[in-house]
Amino acid sequence: MRAGLRFLVLACVAAACGGPTELRVEPAEGDGDGGQVVRVVGSDFLGHGPAVVYFGMRSARAVVVEDEHHISVKTPEAEEFAAVDVRIDFADGTSHTLPQAFTYKQVAGKPLRPVLFKPGALPVPTAQ
User: Fold this and answer.
1) 3-class DSSP assignment, residue 25
2) 64 to 16, 39, 112: CA distances (angstroms)
3) What is the pTM of this model?
4) Is 78 helix (H, G, I), strand (E, B) or coil?
5) Least buried of 8, 34, 101, 106, by fewest C-beta within 10 Å?
6) Residue 42: how many other CB atoms lie within 10 Å
7) pLDDT by 10s per residue, the chain, length 128
8) Which residues 6+ apart lie within 8 Å of 44 measured at CB?
């Protein structure tokens, strides 16, 4: 009994001190207009330089590496109403991918807006 209790206490301490290791997006869905603030939760986010976060092929805005375990971003507009991969690329070449981690939902009465480009405008960065 004593050994079991000791193991349980050590396991709880290790879980609390270790921080999150599973990558996830909170919330995991939003509307197709983009601009929603979401957090990527995981680990190993510090020490790699600036990050670019992609939702499908489009890059997020207002990317802030808050700490070792959290990155906040504003979602880009949807390419389509569907689940998309979320990829984090750091300046040093480190990359994390969360397959089908964010789902763009259609809000009743709001169609998917086409992305229009003006001649001479800078292109929107996309994943390669």
Assistant:
1) strand
2) 24, 9, 27
3) 0.71
4) coil
5) 8
6) 20
7) 555 444 444 444 444 444 445 889 999 999 999 999 999 999 999 999 999 999 999 999 999 999 999 999 999 999 999 999 999 999 999 999 999 999 999 877 766 665 555 556 555 555 54
8) 68, 94, 96
